[in-house]
Write a structure and sequence with these properties.
CATH superfamily of the largest domain: Glycogen Phosphorylase B
Strand order of the largest sheet: 3-2-1-6-7-8-9
Shape: elongated
Largest sheet: 7 strands, parallel
Number of strands: 15
CATH topology of the largest domain: Rossmann fold
Helix content: 40-55%
Strand content: 15-25%
Order of helices and strands: EHEEEEHEHEHEHEHEHEHEHEHEHEHHHH
Radius of gyration: 22 Å
CATH architecture of the largest domain: 3-Layer(aba) Sandwich
């Protein structure tokens, strides 16, 4: 199968959507499929051979973060050439309503299209405002995927229609086998707590953790906090400097270092305040054997099965976070059952299972399209067949498989 996959965000910048697309593309290639990924990327930045660049991206504030997107007539021309030359059996567009390469690909798409929706928003006037404009375009999507129930809720409430939930994937065994780093490993007297995220992105919750460090150290004086991630966060650095070597800033870390960090520490803390649709980093930490302590936002509650696979604290409440950390650091044996349940539960997110679910969506979309094309005498050429398939699968009335 020839699959054209489109990423809206710059492929040379780290992010959950980019990592998801990278891993899915490589899994499909491993299984023998041909995959081309279209994405914004800096010309001088090396990207995998299967990635085709649409050019430099521009940083735009979006959903409490900064998204690197590109749009415009030059980009549109590159997108059209890629679609025309790709001879794809199917297009898989991620975040198709984000004004970037994905939306442009959807405009020119002339065949079976699968769309994956990643974002979660509690309220979005922007999405509600553009819904009437993008509605006809979304009719081209013949199979919709949401990476979580939160992403599905956002789609249903803001854009209409529905989607099948296929979660983000993780290479569980890679994290389970990651080596421990003695410099990051905890002991009963000096347990370690890790944070990983953009330091200067408020919704990642570093300020919440920073305010909890003091109260934790009062009760567990030997605790160490390892803070990983890119960004300045000058205020938090200044606040945490008074705790000396109890807090260490690791800076940006590689994928291998991330796995080792999760395998080494006693607790991974996720103090995000919102804007998360899934929480792939929680699954990675659980796969490596770390206990997860997370804010009780809906996405994290779902990943932790309501607290059965880790511990939850009240979102945005540093005192609640401190109390929870003190409890688990003082009595690590009490979390053994949760860790054991987590080690089993993470298997549902392994890429072997997730890729199979994605391929099931592909197969259903393609088989439905091919069956309908055989009934339609209008299709005389390849593109005519694909056009007829799209019109017939959607029923010409926006009906979309989910």
């Amino acid at each position: 199968m020839r699959v054209g996959m489109v990423c809206p965000y710059s492929f040379d910048a780290p992010g959950g959507v980019q990592f998801h697309i990278r891993d899915l593309a490589e899994e499909l290639i491993r299984l023998g499929h041909e995959v081309s990924v279209l994405a914004p990327a800096e010309d001088a930045t090396p990207v995998p051979d299967y990635v085709v660049s649409t050019g430099r991206a521009v940083a735009i504030p979006y959903n409490g973060s900064v998204a690197r997107l590109n749009f415009g007539p030059v980009v549109a021309g590159r997108v059209r050439r890629w679609v025309d030359q790709g001879d794809f059996d199917l297009l898989h567009i991620h975040e198709p309503v984000i004004p970037s390469a994905g939306m442009l690909a959807l405009w020119v798409a002339d065949g079976p299209v699968v769309g994956t929706f990643h974002s979660s928003m509690e309220r979005s006037r922007a999405l509600q405002a553009i819904s009437p404009l993008v509605g006809p375009m979304l009719e081209k999507i013949t199979g919709r995927i949401a990476v979580s129930e939160e992403a599905r809720r956002t789609l249903v409430e803001h854009l209409g229609g529905d989607a099948v939930v296929v979660p983000n994937g993780v290479y569980v065994d890679r994290f389970a086998a990651a080596p421990r780093n003695p410099a990051w490993s905890g002991t009963p007297q000096r347990p370690t707590v890790a944070f990983l995220g953009r330091l200067d992105e408020p919704r990642k919750g570093l300020p919440i953790l920073a305010d909890a460090v003091g109260p934790v150290l009062e009760q567990v004086p030997g605790a160490r906090f390892l803070v990983a991630g890119r960004g300045d966060a000058a205020d938090e650095r200044a606040l945490l400097a008074r705790f000396g070597d109890s807090v260490t800033f690791l800076g940006g870390i590689s994928d291998e270092e991330k796995a080792s960090l999760f395998a080494s520490v006693d607790v991974y803390v996720a103090p995000q305040t919102g804007g998360e649709s899934f929480g792939i980093v929680l699954v990675e930490a659980m796969s490596a054997g770390s206990l997860v302590v997370a804010a009780d936002i809906p996405a994290f509650q779902a990943v932790l099965d309501g607290g059965e696979l880790g511990r939850l604290f009240h979102r945005g409440d540093s005192a609640s976070l401190a109390r929870t950390l003190v409890e688990v650091l003082r009595d690590p044996a009490s979390t053994r059952a949760a860790r054991e349940r987590a080690a089993v539960a993470v298997r549902r997110y392994d890429w072997s299972r997730v890729t199979s679910q994605v391929l099931s969506v592909y197969d259903l979309v393609l088989s439905t399209a091919h069956a309908r094309v055989r009934e339609d005498p209008r299709s005389r050429t390849m593109f005519g067949r694909l056009r007829a398939a799209t019109q017939l699968v959607t029923g010409g009335e926006g009906q979309t498989w989910a």
